[in-house]
Amino acid sequence: MRAPFHRYLAAALRPDLDHGYISEPEPSLNGRQIQYTRGKGLGGSSILNFGVFLYGADEDHNRWAKLAGDEDWSWKNVKEAFHAIECYDFEGSLEYRHLADPVEI
User: Fold this and answer.
1) Cα distance between residue 17 and residue 10, in whole Å
2) How many domains does the chain have?
3) 19 and which of 38, 46, 64, 65 could share a cystine (Cβ 3.0–4.6 Å)?
4) Quick one: how far is CA 29 from the chain centroid?
5) pLDDT, tens digit (0-9, with 9 covering 90-100), for 51-91
6) Which DSSP category does 93 fall into?
7) Residue 30: C-alpha distances to residues 23, 26, 56, 61 (Å)
């Protein structure tokens, strides 16, 4: 899946939203400097990096549950908890719901 073009607009068209940090010349990169994007404004750097998050691997959660002796950490239970807090029901978001809803795993 490709990110829709409008998700790049803030980074491309609003350089004033970036602090403009650049690394020191890096010896291991032949002296090149690396841009370090850090956002200004509501949401901080999320305004420029899309606020992306990913779920942990299901087997990681299952292992943590086993190690902790607590089934609340199992993937089944954690997935239900994620779904309970992932709600995009305000009317203004309906047009963009396909961009916000996590893909069913």
Assistant:
1) 8
2) 2
3) 38
4) 27
5) 666 788 999 999 999 999 999 999 999 999 988 887 655 67
6) G
7) 13, 7, 35, 41
